[in-house]
Design a protein that fits this description.
Helices cover about 75% and strands about 0% of the residues. It is mostly helical and about 150 residues long.
């Protein structure tokens, strides 16, 4: 089941990013900062990848500007085959790094969070909407901060 409907994958991804950004911004400012930092890394990678692809294309067509573009992203090679190998290596390293980063920091499942909340004594309906969920989390956070400052 797709929660975002039948929209194109690019639109779904964009909408999902908007939801995640709003969630982090509303619930926890430090989490939002981490979200922004990760987003910035992803954007930089996308730019570097585009530069590598454009540079490679230009270099393979015999334009010196292509080799200069490749050097900007750390690809130094004497021929087009070595350049292709180095680009493929960078892409593979990025994919492996992303995979390893995703595993330990996997987001907590909503229902796991809901179960922990119920175990802590909160009565929350599983059909709660995102806006309400954010409000509940903010309220709990504020209560915890007040209790900690009172001690």
């Amino acid at each position: 089941m797709n929660l975002l409907g039948k929209a194109k994958p690019e639109i779904q991804k964009k909408r999902w990013q908007e939801i995640v950004e709003k969630y982090y911004r509303e619930v926890d400012e430090s989490s939002f900062e981490v979200f922004l930092k990760d987003k910035k890394k992803d954007i930089k990678w996308d730019c570097d990848l585009a530069l590598m692809e454009a540079g490679f294309t230009l270099a393979s067509l015999g334009f010196e500007d292509g080799w200069d573009a490749l050097k900007e992203v750390g690809i130094v090679a004497d021929n087009i085959d070595k350049a292709r190998q180095k680009i493929n290596a960078k892409v593979t390293n990025r994919e492996l790094k992303s995979k390893n980063e995703d595993e330990p920091n996997e987001p907590v499942d909503f229902f796991t969070m809901l179960a922990k909340m119920r175990k802590s004594g909160y009565n929350i309906d599983s059909g709660i909407i995102l806006r309400e969920w954010i409000g509940v989390l903010k309220d709990i956070k504020e209560n915890n901060e007040r209790q900690n400052s009172a001690k």
